[in-house]
């Protein structure tokens, strides 16, 4: 799916980024997120309030994390999420601004497509 579609369907605010891994050969970035499920549009009281999901960004053209850090399991709370079209055809840039123990971190990932799945549902 496209990044814009993901942002329309998943609300990331107040969720936590647990871990980020890059596979430069495969041109993939994986982001483990502790998602506030109770803030999602389709949430029902029978579901867990917090779920862990894996966001996989494919055909990554650019990855930038400012400042460059090794993310720990403490998590970084997502403050804002933004998508912007790229000047490079079908690519879009996903930007997360997150806050954690090290202060504010900005993630910018330009990719062609994304997938998101839950680990514990």
From TrEMBL:
Domain of life (superkingdom): Bacteria
Q: What is this protein called?
A: Uncharacterized protein
Q: Which organism is it from?
A: Tumebacillus lacus
Q: Lineage in the entry?
A: Bacteria, Bacillati, Bacillota, Bacilli, Bacillales
């Amino acid at each position: 799916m496209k990044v814009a579609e993901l942002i329309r369907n998943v609300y990331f605010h107040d969720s936590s980024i647990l871990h980020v891994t890059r596979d430069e050969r495969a041109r993939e970035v994986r982001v483990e997120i502790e998602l506030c499920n109770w803030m999602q549009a389709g949430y029902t009281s029978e579901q867990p309030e917090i779920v862990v999901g894996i966001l996989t960004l494919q055909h990554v053209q650019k990855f930038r994390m400012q400042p460059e850090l090794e993310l720990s399991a403490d998590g970084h709370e997502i403050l804002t999420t933004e998508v912007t079209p790229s000047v490079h055809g079908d690519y879009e840039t996903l930007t997360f601004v997150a806050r954690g123990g090290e202060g504010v971190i900005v993630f910018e990932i330009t990719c062609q497509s994304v997938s998101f799945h839950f680990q514990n549902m």
